[in-house]
Every structure is written in C-alpha cells, then in structure tokens.
Amino acid sequence: MSGPAPLSASLAQRIAAFLEYLRSVRRLSMHTVAAYRRDLDSFEGFCQQQALDTCRNVQESHVRQWLAQGHRTGLAPNSLQRRLSALRAYFQWESRDTGQRRNPALAVQAPRKRRKLPGTLEADQVGVYLRADDNDPLQLRDLAMAELLYSSGLRLAELRAVNVHDIDRSQSLISVTGKGSKTRTVPVGRAAINAIDAYLPHRPTPSNPADAQALFVSGRGRRISERSIQSRIQLLAERNGLGRNVHPHMLRHSFASHLLESSGDLRAVQELLGHSDISTTQIYTHLDFQHLAKVYDGAHPRARKRKDEDS
C-alpha cells in the first residue's frame, strides 16, 4: 500500500480499486468478484441518485435507504443480506486504505431470511403412517418411536436418550433433556403409551450396563443410534405406503403445527417444544393466536382418542 488514498476520489474509482484488491491481493474467483461488482454497482447507482460523489459522504441512513429500495423492488432477504455483506466488506477495506475509521454499513441490519418450515404430515396421513405389524418386534419398536416423536414433539437426540424410567404412566408425562442440557416434562398421548407398552415385552435385553435403562435399543441390545432412528422412521413410511419421505424432525413439526391449528396457543407449544425464544416457535404458523386454549388432550389428534376411550 503506497499510502492513504485521496478522500476526493469518486465512489466509482474507489469501488474499482476495491474490486482490483479482491482480484490481485485476495485472489478471489472471478465469480465472487463479479458478485461483489453487481452489488456495489447497485450501490453506486443509488449514490448517483442521491448526489453522493465520494465515500465520505455516505451515511448509515443512505445504506438503509438503499436496502429499502431493493426490498421495494422485490429482492429476497438473502439477496439483501448479500448486498449488505458486500458493502460492509467494501467500507472495511476503505477504512484501512484511507485511515478513516468509519463503516456506515456496520450497524445496519438486513431483513432476516425467512425460516422455511420442513414439510408436515396431514392428520389423515399420520393415521396411515402410524401402523405396524403386531407380530414384528422391530416394527413395534419403530411404531413406539414414531408415536412418541409425534405425540410429544421430541427432537431426534431427545428420543434416543429416553430411558424407561423417564415415562410417568400415572400422569402420562415424559421427562426429556433437550438443548443446553435443559430438562422439560411434556405430555404423552395414550396412543404413544399403548405403543410403548406393546413394544416393551419385545425389547431386546441391553448388552452392556451403560444401556441398561435405554428405552429404544437395537437388535444387538445397544441404545439405538440416531442414524438408525432416521432410517427406521423412513422405513415405516415405506412399509405403510405413505408415498413420501418422513424423518424425525417432520414428526416434531407435525406435532407443533397440528397443536397450533387446533389450539392457537403459541406459548404452550413453545414450552412443549422446549424453545427458549418464541420467535423460533412462530415459524410454525401464521394464525392469529389467542391467549388461552385447551392445548393437549383437547387438540392433539392422537391424544383425543384417550377421551373417546374413557367416555
């Protein structure tokens, strides 16, 4: 570097110098440099509209206006985030090259990417999926795993870690340890308890003391692996002719979506899922939520059967 660049250099000149830096010093690919050029050319065009001739005239408000303009033209949040990232990189280089410690893009936040919800099963599809051969011990285990995933909204790792004593049949509850080693207690539907009770007499004897309390074990008597759970959950869908891929997280999403559709109680579903931030739970629905609702026995499709059986 031969010394600080003149502050009077035009924005177009400085952007051109930055792109050359990316090519010759950073040695980025031509595709990456081209992507930077497209985003920064857009910013330069915006600055021309605003009569901003030099870098030192650009303020944080201008960056926000530029992003807002892109949003109005229909750019997706990920495209706006890419634009902002390019502009931040440019001003970071600019501050080093000129000695002017300012980055008007640093404090600006682009719209968040919309979190896409993986596919869910419809309630009637769940009925087709949750069937098993009563004479096949492995299918009984697979059905018990699938029922518990859907009944209680467990994560894959939570299901694998369940021990026999974690289930309180008298209260129809299960205790699980989730992310951050946080323990929560959630309801278990009657259908899931029945499936677990049907499986337990066929549960292989654990082959080592560490797995003695594991609820779900492999044919070799070891706590079942996450990979095996995933493959068996999919195999159950294939056996029952569901016609689509099913994975443990899909059952968790189906649990949450069906409860929210029936109850509208976002806070309750947040607790059941073990989400620390309610914004994570909000990806499941666009409903207008009411504060109070019957959440589990009155809403969950598989839990309703308990009421029908008791009546």
Summary keywords:
311 residues
What overall form do the CA principal axes indicate?
A: elongated
Classify the helix fraction into a percent range: 40-55%
Strand content: under 5%
Low-confidence stretches: 1-8, 286-294
Oligomer: single chain
> What is the tally of helical segments?
13
Main sheet overview: 3 strands, antiparallel
Q: SSE order, as H and E?
A: HHHHHHHEEEHHHHHH
- In whole angstroms, the N-to-C terminal distance is 83 Å
Kindly provide the radius of gyration, computed on alpha-carbon positions and rounded to a whole number of angstroms.
Answer: 28 Å
* Alpha-beta classification: mainly alpha
List the helices and strands and how they pair.
Layout: H1 11-24, H2 30-49, H3 60-72, H4 77-98, H5 123-129, H6 137-152, H7 156-161, E1 167-168, E2 173-177, E3 183-187, H8 190-199, H9 226-239, H10 248-263, H11 266-273, H12 278-281, H13 304-310
Antiparallel strand pairs: 1-2, 2-3
Helix pairs in contact: 1-2, 2-4, 3-4, 6-8, 6-9, 6-10
Describe the structure.
With about 300 residues, the chain is mainly α. The chain is built from 13 helices and three strands; from the N terminus they run αααααααβββαααααα. The chain has a three-stranded antiparallel β-sheet with strand order 1-2-3. Helix 6 packs antiparallel against helix 8 and helix 6 packs across helix 10. The chain is elongated. The N and C termini lie far apart (about 85 Å). The N terminus is likely disordered.
